Amino acid sequence: MISIANNWKDYEVIDCSSGEKLERWGKYILLRPDPQVIWNTKRASSYYKKLNAHYHRSSKGGGEWEFFDLPEQWSINYTLPINKTLTFNLKPFAFKHTGVFPEQAFNWDWFSSIIYKKKQEQPDREIKVLNLFAYTGGATMAAAAAGASVTHVDASKGMVTWAKENAMSSGLGDAPIRWLTDDCRKFVEREIRRGNKYDGIIMDPPSYGRGTKNEVWKIEDDIFPFIELCEQILSDDALFFLVNSYTTGLQPAVLNYMISTALLKNHPGKVEADEIGLPVTESGLVLPCGASGRWTS
Q1: In whole angstroms, what is the distance from residue 22 CA to residue 12 CA?
Q2: CA dist 192 → 148, 154, 202 (Å)
Q3: Nearest-angstrom CA–CA distance, 272 and 274
Q4: What's the pTM?
Q5: Do the beta carbons of residue 104 and residue 244 sit within 8 Å?
Q6: What is the pLDDT of residues 91-106, one digit of tens each?
């Protein structure tokens, strides 16, 4: 089963072939590498001749942008099913990224609906959400827009600043969001000692990364112990737990097994995991974009 982020208006995968995907971000057309695109199909779309920017991957690793007609920054919007609109400030930066992983909209829809429904049932309840490896804040904004108090943690100061800018643009400048530049593992260990608990935990860990003090993160070694750590700060009446992974080695069944093993003993509920993807306009097929594992009470 694959869960599809198909509610975008300002983003579209037009086509994908020969290791690259052709995308529309608002009114701008980008061509970027994608490791999942291992097929060679005819590039029939006229948009291949209307590129605003093309990221060329280097055979030595990394790569660089070639710009034709692209502003340094522009914005796109996404409307959640709870009728709240998020605004993302985009800019092309190192290693092909623009500041948003659009497939995550499926998860934003999922947990924002859970939070919103619970707030309708219990308007006085504070719903505390922890977003780890929080990047430019898509999940943070979706949770805050639904009514949660959010703690946003990322090891990159630049990413936290970018996330704050997105929140301001989304009308969430006064929302109860705590912005922290910190190593995620060390932060969770401190929260365990402090006895703090969260009603929802979101994590989108990188395959490889370094913390604020050069701490090394390798997903295959660290993800399961980290999920076990996070289980200790999940509240007794928690609502959800989400692990997302773009790493091809972490199949949905692996995420399901890890979350079930770490959570179900103390937090009975339902665990499901599946691939997530984006619809491709030209072919009518779905581009796979990793996997997500989800627990709900």
Answers
A1: 9
A2: 21, 18, 16
A3: 7
A4: 0.95
A5: yes
A6: 998 778 999 999 999 9
